[in-house]
Design brief:
The chain has 16 helices and twelve strands. With about 400 residues, it is an alpha/beta fold.
Length: about 400
């Protein structure tokens, strides 16, 4: 069954292939735009999909690593998971292209874009944005909370890129955000997110960040008016990947069940609900939990969830997998893990590894890590529970 689970995870990745999904979304469209602004972990593949559908294109691709992009598209590599100087250079460039494009732009947006591409609002400096990002990521803040704050600090996010454009955007989104609208993905560079500075400031206060007057003033200023995009489409998300697993497992004669809620919040509480709702066969969930990280160990939210699950299924016939669809689970250097009833027998007492957020090191010793390398897509995480 371990081999079957690994196969089904590959099926899920194929189902949310950014190149194919972008091609399918654009191939029948009668549009004149050929200028692309692609931001996120799936940006290179989405650019290729657009070129497949439209022919010659131009523009910029902001990605997480050096990648092949179509001729005419400029590649910029931003910083992740916290924005840095490379992210500022990318942000400045995308604003230039959005401002100068005479025919409008096609925005290709995917997860990771919040960090990869940045340009602060007047009154906000990079060091404050970096500190806010670090605190929010470590505190277990939800992605909606984190991106609401990011949007109020940035001249690109929360529709800022659209406001820089004279002609507007066609926007395609590959979503890594569980249950939220497309405006939350990459903090919505072309889509208006709710302007709620009071809540954003309260979120910063809740994680112990002192906000200078210049920053709070910038956050309180309402955004200007932007160009209206003519179309927004979510071309893929975690639910699409989960359904692909269900269909593949059904074809293999395995009974399946989709978890009715997105995976969010505290991983332990989410695991409890996931297990309680499971039945015989394969249970499948999609989303993104938000663990509170108290130490800089070798781990990510998926290896952490998998090791927690291993404590629940010890000495049983159950198997559990937690998998990051982008292939990179935090500091784990793996996509996640597949654990079984013998994981603790192979790895020993997991208490210290869980406390230090060092789950990947433990699961490496127990032989349970799933290593894929970057997959080129990103629709958050998948959980599978096999129960004979």
């Amino acid at each position: 069954m371990r081999e079957a689970i690994r196969h089904w995870l590959d099926v899920a990745i194929d189902a949310v292939d950014p190149r194919r999904l972008t091609f399918e979304a654009l191939r029948d469209e009668r549009i004149d735009q050929r200028t692309l602004i692609a931001i996120g972990k799936a940006a290179p593949a989405m650019c290729h999909g657009a070129a497949d559908a439209l022919g010659p294109v131009r523009g910029v691709c902001v990605a997480a690593s050096k990648s092949d992009v179509p001729a005419g598209v400029e590649l910029l590599v931003g910083d992740h998971p916290v924005p840095g100087e490379a992210s500022l250079r990318a942000g400045h460039r995308v604003l230039e292209i959005a401002t100068d494009a005479d025919d409008g732009c096609i925005a290709l947006i995917s997860g990771g874009g919040s960090s990869l591409c940045e340009w602060p609002r007047p009154g906000v400096d990079l060091s404050f944005i970096q500190e806010a990002n670090r605190r929010l990521l470590l505190a277990g803040s939800s992605i909606e909370e984190t991106n609401l704050v990011r949007g109020h600090l940035s001249a690109i996010k929360c529709g800022g890129l659209a406001r820089a454009s004279r002609k507007g955007f066609e926007t395609l989104v590959l979503s890594d955000v569980a249950g939220a609208g497309p405006e939350v993905v990459a903090s919505g560079p072309t889509l208006e997110m709710s302007h709620d500075p009071v809540r954003a400031l309260a979120i910063l206060e809740s994680v112990g960040i002192e906000v200078p007057a210049s920053v709070s003033g910038a956050m309180m200023r309402p955004p200007g008016q932007g160009s209206a995009g003519t179309r927004v489409e979510v071309i893929g998300d975690g639910l699409k990947a989960a359904r692909a697993i269900s269909e593949a497992a059904d074809a293999d004669g395995v009974q399946t069940r989709l978890h009715p809620k997105w995976l969010t919040g505290d991983p332990g509480q989410t695991l409890d609900a996931f297990f309680e709702g499971a039945g015989q066969g394969l249970s499948i969930g999609a989303g993104e939990t938000a663990p509170k990280v108290v130490s800089g160990g070798r781990g990510g939210r998926n290896t952490h969830a998998a090791l927690l699950a291993a404590t629940r299924i010890a000495e049983t016939d159950l198997l559990f997998s937690a998998f990051a669809t982008d292939g990179v689970d935090g500091a784990a250097e793996a996509a996640g893990a597949i654990v079984d009833g013998g994981t603790l027998a192979r790895g020993g007492d997991p208490t210290e590894s869980l406390a230090l957020f060092d789950s990947a090191a433990y699961l490496d010793r127990s032989g349970d890590l799933v290593v894929t390398g970057p997959t080129g897509t990103n629709v958050a995480d998948l959980w599978l529970l096999w129960q004979p």
